[in-house]
């Protein structure tokens, strides 16, 4: 799709660590879930820079977020993309059909902004729509696929999100493929984020995931996230309800995308922020933040920069975790990750509360029956790490035993269970 010299689709299966990983599009991009910052959820389509100078979609906003990505440690933690969403364009193309930014809000042009972002060690992302108009009513791509692909390459774009408003739901797939081919011919590597599954799902159409993997590096499966815990829960429910058909298509180079992380905005408490982060980590979802980085509290910043959690999210196997059981409104999510100990993979496990009690709720689970940990006779136990609190000493559990944790209302706890064998277990 992106690099004409690497236009190979692997449709076979590769067995890694006793887990089947299916590889599709191989353009060398997005081998780990993409990480970065995106404007839409927090800044929407605010375009009045006189009334809202610090919030309007503008060159100044993206430069400011770029600088904060660097100064606040997000770049060094692995967040690498700065992405413009809708509402950056002028109302019309120029006389040659070339897209133009709004000249008042982007006075130096998009190439200038891309260069500014690149000079600070980050990558630049942009937005367009496969239809006649973007969702906010700006010029769409119909009739200009080739021209737009070359324009984005000339500007130095590294990531592109293509939306699906004002397009025929059944015909849009061919247009997504066509645009991907034009991007490929430019010779510039551009991470391709598609949206057609979200539009098809709403119309009751099951997307062709094999075709998605051949075309896109990531794709939105469902609707836009809103700034509320309810929205996070609804999106999470979509992913758990349909996990049997979407999980197999998630992996290096091609990711299911539940939308942005909204930690640091108005709608989530601290515990609800932990809940979203825990589920997105288990799902191996892209970590694209959408907030005002200047106003993130120290507690939320600590969550977003948590090295142990980022390491789990970025696990090289790229396996999407699943909801394995619900006990008294406590969801148990599990994801196999590296390292492998003997023949067994480590497991990341989240306990996610859907309760609204006035106090934390304790749940006790059997490691094999409830959580599905290995019943191999070689495993003597597990070393359990609390990923939200590195100060807590690791806990040693014998295989076949129970584990108890207490979760705050609408919050989550997140752990890493590392298998232990023989004398390795006894020595701790």
TrEMBL record:
PANTHER family: ALPHA-GALACTOSIDASE (PTHR11452:SF66), ALPHA-GALACTOSIDASE/ALPHA-N-ACETYLGALACTOSAMINIDASE (PTHR11452). It catalyses: a globoside Gb3Cer (d18:1(4E)) + H2O = a beta-D-Gal-(1->4)-beta-D-Glc-(1<->1)-Cer(d18:1(4E)) + D-galactose; a globoside Gb3Cer + H2O = a beta-D-galactosyl-(1->4)-beta-D-glucosyl-(1<->1)-ceramide + D-galactose; Hydrolysis of terminal, non-reducing alpha-D-galactose residues in alpha-D-galactosides, including galactose oligosaccharides, galactomannans and galactolipids. Keywords: Disulfide bond, Glycoprotein, Glycosidase, Hydrolase, Lipid metabolism, Lysosome, Membrane, Signal, Transmembrane, Transmembrane helix. GO terms for cellular component: extracellular region; lysosome; membrane. This is Alpha-galactosidase. Belongs to the glycosyl hydrolase 27 family. It is found in: Lysosome. Its EC number is 3.2.1.-. Residues 318-411 form the Alpha galactosidase A C-terminal domain. GO terms for biological process: glycolipid catabolic process; glycoside catabolic process; oligosaccharide metabolic process; sphingolipid metabolic process. Gene3D superfamilies: Aldolase class I, Golgi alpha-mannosidase II. InterPro entries: Aldolase_TIM, GH, Glyco_hydro_27, Glyco_hydro_27/36_CS, Glyco_hydro_b, Melibiase/NAGA_C. GO terms for molecular function: alpha-galactosidase activity. Homodimer. It comes from the Eukaryota. It holds the Pfam family Melibiase_2_C. Catalyzes the hydrolysis of glycosphingolipids and participates in their degradation in the lysosome. The chain crosses the membrane at residues 6-25.
């Amino acid at each position: 799709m992106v690099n004409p010299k690497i236009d190979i689709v692997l449709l076979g299966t590769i067995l890694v660590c006793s887990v089947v990983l299916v590889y599709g599009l191989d353009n060398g991009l997005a081998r780990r879930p993409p990480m970065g910052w995106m404007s839409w959820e927090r800044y929407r389509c605010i375009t009045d820079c006189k009334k809202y100078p610090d919030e309007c979609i503008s060159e100044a906003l993206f430069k400011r977020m770029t600088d904060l990505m660097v100064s606040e440690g997000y770049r060094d933690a692995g967040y690498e993309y700065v992405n413009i969403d809708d509402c950056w364009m002028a109302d019309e193309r120029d006389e040659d059909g070339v897209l133009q930014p709004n000249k008042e809000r982007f006075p130096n042009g998009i190439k200038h902004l891309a260069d500014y972002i690149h000079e600070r060690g980050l990558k630049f992302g942009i937005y367009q729509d496969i239809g006649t108009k973007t969702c906010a009513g700006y010029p769409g791509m119909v009739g200009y696929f080739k021209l737009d692909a070359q324009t984005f390459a000339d500007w130095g774009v590294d990531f592109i999100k293509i939306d699906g408003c004002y397009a025929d739901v059944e015909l849009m797939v061919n247009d997504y493929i066509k645009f991907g081919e034009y991007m490929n011919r430019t010779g510039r590597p551009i991470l391709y984020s598609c949206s057609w599954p979200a539009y098809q799902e709403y119309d009751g159409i099951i997307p062709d995931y094999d075709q998605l993997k051949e075309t896109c590096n990531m794709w939105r499966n469902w609707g836009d996230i809103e700034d509320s815990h309810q929205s996070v829960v609804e999106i999470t429910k979509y992913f758990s309800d349909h996990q049997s058909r979407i999980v197999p298509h998630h992996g290096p180079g091609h990711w299911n995308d539940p939308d942005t992380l909204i930690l640091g905005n108005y709608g989530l408490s601290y515990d609800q922020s932990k809940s979203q982060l825990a589920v997105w980590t288990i799902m191996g979802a892209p970590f694209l933040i959408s907030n005002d980085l200047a106003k993130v509290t120290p507690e939320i910043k600590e969550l977003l920069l948590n090295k142990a959690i980022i390491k789990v999210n970025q696990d090289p196997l790229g396996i999407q975790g699943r909801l394995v059981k619900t006990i008294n409104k406590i969801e148990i999510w599990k994801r196999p990750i590296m390292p492998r100990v003997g023949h067994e993979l480590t497991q990341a496990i989240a306990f996610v509360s859907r309760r609204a009690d006035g106090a934390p709720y304790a749940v006790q689970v059997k490691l094999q029956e409830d959580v599905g940990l290995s019943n191999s006779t070689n495993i003597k136990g597990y070393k359990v790490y609390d990923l939200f609190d590195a100060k807590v000493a690791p806990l040693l559990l014998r295989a076949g035993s129970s584990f108890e944790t207490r979760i705050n209302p609408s919050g989550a706890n997140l752990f890493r269970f590392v298998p232990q064998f023989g004398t390795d277990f006894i020595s701790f």
